[in-house]
Write a sequence for this structure.
DNA sequence: AATGGGACCTGCGCGC
DNA sequence: TGCGCGCAGGTCCCAT
């Protein structure tokens, strides 16, 4: 799933390859991805625009076209962006650029979203979003937990609590911090929260360095896989021995989401 | 405030 | 071989 490391990888790569290119042609193969605007109007407004800047907030990709025109992408579960044309399978909306690259929004399950807005700060998803984890000090991070009664895992995945953490990284960082995903957030000790903070920063940075986790459809803009899936410790490793204590990894549904963890060393 | 459910979607893996 | 079914996942929305 595209979470903070995957979206960061995509945004970094887009900034290297498509800045100041002009959008020459837009092709909408699947209208369902385009939200809040008629596809024909979308095509008309976007065609001829120049890509000024590519930004990220949480899992949202923001492409600045003009001072008051922003293209917004949300990859949701199965979306990915391609710049090189070998893997055009599932391409649903494509942008042909003046540097002869084609930017394609691909999405197997069609739950992704494309919007066109005047001011991205006004989007509901942006306004309600919690802080960026990589811009957060340890003290600020620990303060966020005051009075939170939710189980720690769904809390970490709550985008209004902290931005960019999804199902995969929530599980990996709880394993790293040796915390049971069902623990109530307000029952964690200061030591546990400090450990969780260092795991959060280290795992996100490492995953960005490895260009994300390709466990499903996610790819870099080149079509290559990210390398972090190879070092996942618990995600999708049910019944395999825990790398710390050898106890089999367990899968359990927590708050409606599949969750892998080690019941022996995550307390 | 927390929790649970359904909706959106497709492709995969399962049982038969 | 092939059918039908259930599941996965992020976000929003409704109900309790």
């Amino acid at each position: 799933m595209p979470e903070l490391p995957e979206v960061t990888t995509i945004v970094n790569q887009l900034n290297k390859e498509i800045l100041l290119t002009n959008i020459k042609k837009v092709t909408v193969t699947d209208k369902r991805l385009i939200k809040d605007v008629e596809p024909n109007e979308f095509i008309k407004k976007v065609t001829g625009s120049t890509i000024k800047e590519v930004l990220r907030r949480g899992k949202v990709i923001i492409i600045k076209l003009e001072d008051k025109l922003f293209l917004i992408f949300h990859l949701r579960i199965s979306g990915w962006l391609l710049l090189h044309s070998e893997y055009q399978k599932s391409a649903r909306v494509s942008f042909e650029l003046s540097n002869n690259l084609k930017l394609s929004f691909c999405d197997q399950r069609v739950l992704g979203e494309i919007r066109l807005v005047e001011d991205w700060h006004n989007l509901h998803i942006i306004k309600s979003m919690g802080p960026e984890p990589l811009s957060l000090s340890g003290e600020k991070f620990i303060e966020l937990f005051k009075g939170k009664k939710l189980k720690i895992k769904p809390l970490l995945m709550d985008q209004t609590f902290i931005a960019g953490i999804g199902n995969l990284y929530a599980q990996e960082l709880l394993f790293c911090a040796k915390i049971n995903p069902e623990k109530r957030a307000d029952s964690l000790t200061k030591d546990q929260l400090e450990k969780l903070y260092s795991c959060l920063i280290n795992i996100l940075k490492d995953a960005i360095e490895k260009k994300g986790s390709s466990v499903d459809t996610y790819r870099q803009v080149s079509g290559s896989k990210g390398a972090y899936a190879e070092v996942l410790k618990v995600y999708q490793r049910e019944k395999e021995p825990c790398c710390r204590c050898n106890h089999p990894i367990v899968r359990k549904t927590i708050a409606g989401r599949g969750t892998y963890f080690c019941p022996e060393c995550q307390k």
